[in-house]
Amino acid sequence: MKTFEISESNLKNCEKEIETAKKMILGGKIILCGTDTLYGLSTNALDKNAIEKIYLIKERDPKKPISISLGEKKQIENYVYVDETAKKIIEKFMPGPITVILKKKDIIPDILGKDDVGVRIPDNDVIRNIAVVPLTTTSANISGKTAPTSLEEVDQIIKEKVDLIVDTGPCKYKVQSTIVKVIDGKIELVREGKIPFEEILKAVNE
């Protein structure tokens, strides 16, 4: 299995590796890559066939949604509808360990979520540079097992089923992202992670 070692500190020296990863993503390949929170399985989130491979690798229930990761905040409204509440959260906490579930636009395949989709911008320059298109960002583990925060923690079974491994070193937060759902200005906690929900509510109400 081909492995690239790309840290945030040596990113400028890895332009060829980043371009290779981008081409593989566009070709529907599966990449195992570190983020700010966990190691994840990434592929082109606009490619239904590629997404189906992710579900098979993880042995994940097809009814369970998968979030997407983007490279920049300005891209978010290309894929989801953003209200004023969501804008406050995005401005305050992204890039960072937060996933915001928003009503999706038709460009996002229904396999990721029927009506809405979780959106992330990881606080990790490597994965953001690879995001030439929206990426799936689901943890690199068999469903139900512990999510890995370093490459060493990734199950060998997972490693053998991906097309490229990008070793970004240990994840800086080592805790899953906080997930909130924002629909019609209402905010709901789905999963508390690195960012306390109280802190998010405070930012929305400022």
Shape: globular
Question: How many β-strand runs?
Answer: 11
Q: What level of helicity do the residues show?
A: 25-40%
Question: What radius of gyration results from the CA coordinates?
Answer: 16 Å
What share of the residues does DSSP label as strand, in percent?
A: 15-25%
Structural class category: alpha/beta
CATH superfamily: DHBP synthase
Question: In CATH, what is the class?
Answer: Alpha Beta
Low-confidence region ranges: none
CATH architecture: Alpha-Beta Complex
Strand order across the largest sheet:
7-4-6-5-10-11
Structure described in brief:
The chain is of the alpha/beta class.
Describe this structure as you would to a colleague.
It contains six helices and eleven strands. The protein has helices at 15-26, 48-58, 84-93, 125-130, 156-161, 197-205, and strands at 3-5, 31-34, 39-42, 68-69, 98-103, 116-120, 135-136, 138-139, 164-167, 178-183, 186-191. It is globular and about 45 Å long. The model has no long low-confidence stretch (mean pLDDT 96). A hairpin with a 2-residue loop joins strand 10 and strand 11 (186-191). The strands form two sheets. It has a six-stranded mixed β-sheet with strand order 7-4-6-5-10-11, covered by helices on one side. A five-stranded mixed β-sheet has the order 1-9-2-3-8, with helices on one face. By secondary structure, it is α/β, with parallel strands linked by helices. The protein has one domain (1-203): DHBP synthase. InterPro entries: DHBP_synth_RibB-like_a/b_dom, Sua5-like_dom, TC-AMP_synthase_SUA5. One of its GO terms (biological process) is regulation of translational fidelity. One of its GO terms (cellular component) is cytoplasm. It is an enzyme of class 2 (transferase). This is L-threonylcarbamoyladenylate synthase.
